[in-house]
Amino acid sequence: MLAIMDDELPEFDRRVLEVLRQPMESGRVTISRAARQSDFPARFQLIAAMNPCPCGFLGHPSGKCDCTSDAVLRYQGRISGPLLDRIDIQIEVAALQPDTLLADADGEASSVIAARVALAHQRQLARQGKPNQALITGEVERHCRLDQSGELLLRKAMLHLNWSARVYHRVLKVARTIADLGDAPVILAEHISEAIQLRRGLREP
């Protein structure tokens, strides 16, 4: 699996970005030339970053952003809704204060996290023979079971955030993965809540 990384996604031509939609969905890319057409495997992991606005300071504690609301919307609008629908995790990374940058990092060691991820992956293969990311619609409904409170929370989020059916299934798969990391057989409201928060990346002007 190839990881494609970029640190300023909106600087790409929009037509170039839109070409990613089909292989992100199917894991294959089709090249057409004259009367010939070829299909190639193209399953990859996309990792990208972008500023929240043209100047990069929207939401910064210093208040330095001088972008108008229209300018922010135009900038964020370079990434289409259908492309964003296909990006499972979208998070805002706030600017860190100097004291935080200078302090020793806390949290778990990477080796501990890697072991937990490996166990979650094994659970997915044992349950359905493939990772959660590869589940198709019918399989999502079968393997991503929610408890009552989780179902209610997800329904409210869908209505409030106007999510498409594609986003609904992707949030379910992320929530299933979060549950697998905790060895939970059923997706709970806390897993849904975390999956929802992982799709709240763009800051509105």
What does this structure look like?
Pfam families: Mg_chelatase, Mg_chelatase_C. This is ATPase. Residues 107-199 form the Mg chelatase-related protein C-terminal domain. One of its GO terms (molecular function) is ATP binding. Residues 7-99 form the Magnesium chelatase ChlI-like catalytic domain. There is one protein chain. With 205 residues, the chain is mainly α. The protein has two domains: 2-87, no CATH class; 127-197, Helicase, Ruva Protein, domain 3 (Orthogonal Bundle), CATH 1.10.8. It is 46% helix and 11% strand. It is built from ten helices and four strands, in the order βααβββαααααααα. The strands form two sheets. A two-stranded parallel sheet has the order 1-4. A two-stranded antiparallel ribbon has the order 2-3. A hairpin with a 2-residue loop joins strand 2 and strand 3 (36-41). Helix 8 (148-161) packs parallel to helix 10 and helix 9 crosses helix 10. The longest helix has 19 residues, at 110-128. It starts with a strand and ends in an 8-residue tail after the last helix. The model has no long low-confidence stretch (mean pLDDT 88).
